[in-house]
Design a protein that fits this description.
13 helices, mainly alpha, 0% strand, 295 residues, MetI-like fold
């Protein structure tokens, strides 16, 4: 029996008096399971740290160059002067009111243009004739420089809040309609036939197939639309307005207050980032609601 065991098996001697466990890098043939969530968290941490580092370096170099004279402080101001002027405008001026004015016109125009444009694009599914007639006009409106219509809208609607909302709406509605129309055109025809064969009504096919199918196309236009909406509101304030960041920048330029101009630029940059992050959260919420995965 002992001879059979010696011939049939290879007997290894275990060494005592030490760590008998094999090191992870020496374990060959074992499956390697990667912690994807941990890797994703580390990647996000590295990206966030890198972004913060770059931003701090830009600000520090900007301040250093203006103090040493490498940059003309009259034209480029400096981060310290910008912060000081910002605090003065918050405590003694109307900066907070201007931020609320610009943000309100941007958000209202974005919501109105995105919702109505998406509904218009989805409506093309109900009638191919209506879609065929409307499509070239949408393309024409999309190619038209809508910012050139800003003086007309301001004259027509006045210098108040509504004219800024209308311009932001005009900047977004066509993009949203074209995105929804592209989604409608990409709907799987075989899926529609299957739904009809199972006894589904036309409105059921629209709600269960067409809208979920076109939703990624509509979501993809949100980030573009928020930027276009902000640009429309600012241009409207540039032309004529009693409030808003755009009005503040134009006023600062006329009195040659460069520090105040840079305050407007910094506030608009921060405002655009906040709105962009809000749209990203909205995209994630819509994606979860319709079972989609966003990068």
């Amino acid at each position: 029996m002992e001879n059979v065991q010696k011939k049939g098996y290879v007997i290894h001697k275990l060494e005592t008096g030490g760590n008998t466990a094999l090191k992870p890098e020496k374990r060959q043939g074992e499956p390697f399971i990667q912690d994807e969530e941990g890797t994703a968290r580390r990647t996000r941490r590295i990206i966030g740290t890198g972004r913060l580092t770059v931003a701090l370096l830009v600000v520090l170099c900007w301040e250093l160059f203006t103090r040493t004279g490498w940059l003309d402080s009259y034209y480029w101001s400096s981060p310290v002067r910008i912060l000081s002027t910002t605090w003065t405008q918050i405590t003694e001026g109307t900066l907070l009111q201007d931020i609320a004015y610009t943000s309100g016109s941007t958000i209202f125009g974005f919501i109105g243009g995105t919702v109505l444009g998406s509904l218009l694009g989805l409506s093309f599914w109900w009638s191919r004739k209506f879609a065929g007639i409307s499509e070239p006009f949408l393309i024409l409106l999309n190619a038209m420089p809508k910012l050139a219509l800003a003086p007309i809208l301001v004259i027509l609607l006045g210098i108040g809040f509504f004219s800024k909302v209308a311009l932001a709406f005009a900047m977004t509605v066509v993009v949203a309609a074209l995105s929804a129309h592209s989604g409608v055109q990409s709907v799987d025809k075989e899926m529609e036939k299957l739904m009809y064969s199972l006894g589904a009504k036309r409105h059921q096919v629209f709600t269960k197939v067409v809208i979920p199918w076109a939703m990624p196309w509509m979501i993809s236009s949100l980030r573009i639309n928020i930027a276009l909406s902000l640009a429309g509101a600012i241009v409207g304030e540039f032309i004529a307005s009693s409030h808003g960041i755009g009005r503040m920048v134009i006023y600062a330029g006329t009195i040659l207050d460069i520090n105040l101009v840079w305050v407007g630029v910094a506030v608009l940059s921060a405002l655009s980032m906040v709105m962009y992050m809000g749209v990203v959260l909205l995209e994630k919420w819509l994606s979860r609601g319709y079972g989609m995965k966003k990068a």
